[in-house]
Specification:
This protein has 8 helices and 17 strands. It has 314 residues and is an alpha/beta fold. The chain has a 7-stranded mixed sheet with strand order 5-2-1-6-7-9-10. Strands 12, 13, 14, 15, 16 and 17 form a 6-stranded antiparallel sheet that branches. The radius of gyration is 22 Å and the shape is elongated. The termini are far apart. The mean pLDDT is 96.
Length: 314
Amino acid sequence: MQSIIFMGTPQFSVPVLEGLIDKGYEIKAVVTQPDKKVGRKQKLTKTPAKIAAEKHNILVYQPVKLSGSNELEELMNLHADFIVTAAYGQFLPTKFLNSVKIAAVNVHGSLLPKYRGGAPIQYSLLNGDQETGITIMEMVKKMDAGDMYAQKAIKIEKDDTAGSLFEKLSYLGRDLLLETLPKIADNTVVKTAQNPDNVVFSPNITKSQEKITKEMTAKEANNLIRALNPDPGAFMMVQGQRLKVWKAEVLDKKTNLEPGRLVNNKKCFAISFANKTVLNLLVLQPAGKKRMDVKNFANGQGSKFKPGDKIVDD
């Protein structure tokens, strides 16, 4: 069985790595991002890929920047058959891509050429897409621009979040990669070039994109909530305080209230948005508090408002 240098960081990468191990591939090293301080206590935390690698006693590299590092030379000297990346998070130098015996392969969470970049799953939700999927592609220096070895789509369900799609796509990516690697190795795979006219980019989500505004329709706000769940979470400003929204639903009803007003707070918390649309918040998190369902919120903090009151700050 061929040897692999595996490169990944978040939980998305773990099923892919485990699948390669279970299939009998020799994992010569796992390359992942450096440990980070997480949470209020700033606890130094290992990446999910590192945790998985250590469980299998696999050599781990964590360069801050791979290009020009001592780790790069060591990795090239491993003379692996494949490089396999799955949400690693850094560009790879061309000389490294060319150092392997067979191919450098990426497991990408979109139907390329749509959504090149670091947040393809989030953008599929933000834009209200009906489907997403996995592309197994050849790695080149240009971001997510290599020829495609294989592709498979799945339907986006109405209750899917970034978290649920990450999980679904990680297993889809594992299975599609394991089907494709032998074809790459024996040169029976048919590569397909990406159509440059259909390229869409999905850059990493910025802080400014996390805010729910009353200029959005209820559907647009709900898409944002789903796209940013479980991390970092979407929020709206209510009387100068952040109110995070983890789950919501678009109601069929219309309203004549101007956007940002309370429509109903009887065992719910429904707010007017653009084009007379209405969004009911289902799971909320007021500033400094834990998550709560809408019933508890409506009986507590939400009870001080009455229908017609302004909820969403300008």
